[in-house]
Amino acid sequence: MELSERKKKVLRSVVDLYIRTAEPVGSKAICELPDMKFSSATIRNEMAALTDMGYLEQPHTSAGRIPSPAGYRLYVDELMADYRLSMDETKSINSAIEEKMQRFDQMMEKVAKLVSQATDLPAISVASRQGGTTVKRFDLILAGAGSVILVMMLSTDEVVNKLIKLPVNATETDIKLLGAVLNAAMTGLTAEEFTAELLEKVMAAAGAAGALVPVILEFTAETLRRSGGTNMAIAGHARLLGLPEYRDVDKAQKVLTSFDEDALANLPAVMQNENGTKVLVGPENVAQELKDTSVVMTKFDIGDGLQGMIGVVGPTRMDYAKVTARLSYFAESLSKLFAKPEQPQLPEPAEKE
Predict the structure, then answer these.
(1) Helices and strands (H, E) in the chain, number of each type
(2) Nearest to residue 213, comparing CAs of 231, 230, 196, 233?
(3) Cα(8)–Cα(74) distance, rounded to whole angstroms?
(4) How far apart are CA 239 and CA 94, in angstroms?
(5) Entry pTM
(6) What is the Cα–Cα distance from 311 to 279, expressed in whole angstroms?
(7) Domains (ranges, CATH) in the chain?
(8) Could you read off the pLDDT of 189-230 as tens digits, one per residue?
(9) Residue 314: in which H helix or E strand, if any?
């Protein structure tokens, strides 16, 4: 059902107010907005309708409303206003980027710290070689005692293997079918192309041995990332602790302990065929650890066959307009910087996160 312009205006106001205050939004607060010309009763009715439609949530019976993941998604796609960077913001970003890097192997860590400082959120940066390492062939060898050896020949002619425990009901015929499926569906792919959709497709085709597919896919992707020279850095974990959503110690600890490279490993694949900035709201994230957060990402060119990606992770209440504007500007500036003939350098970020 398409929303009326009035419902869209009310939803946008709820999201904007919740982003600023981190408190549930009531109809009275919306009525007090200078551009809101509707009566209090009309706004209450619209908020109730938006709640029934799944765009708003009511955390407590007597409380106001907060946006749902669906509400954030509509806000990001259609409702949020463009955020124009101030002169001070562009000057600050340019000043940081224009500094020279001393060593290339430290680039991603420095970029992640600078992005985290610019957005006040945990940040990720990735550099990977385009057209990277792939698997030329998979072989599965029964090892007895309920185990199978996975053997992979890579495009670099490197051979790697892994011992995997078999499901109780897997037969030799099942293992042969799985080997055929792996060679048909997973050869010639880079680590970034190992997506959740591919996992589902291979599991469905593998029959009784499908339970082995997640383990094989994870091991293969990790092997390709390591062999292909993918460089990932994460910075600013502690910035989450300053947000109202994570004042609860148990909740904060759960998020911080899961905020690692394994949870973020699939994000570059999400950007594989994307242009511009990508926003994943809450449940849209592939990794279970990120289901209660939002991720904003964008790509930039490094040159010499390398592709860069930067992104931030934060609460679903993050200021999407400001974050996307800053990331986009950061990415554009990095692309221009790396296009220069001299080796770029970045300043040492402050130690305090």
Answers:
(1) 13, 10
(2) 196
(3) 9
(4) 22
(5) 0.63
(6) 9
(7) 5-79 (1.10.10.10), 87-130+230-338 (3.30.450.40), 135-227 (3.30.390)
(8) 877 788 888 888 888 888 888 888 889 998 888 888 766 556
(9) strand 306-314
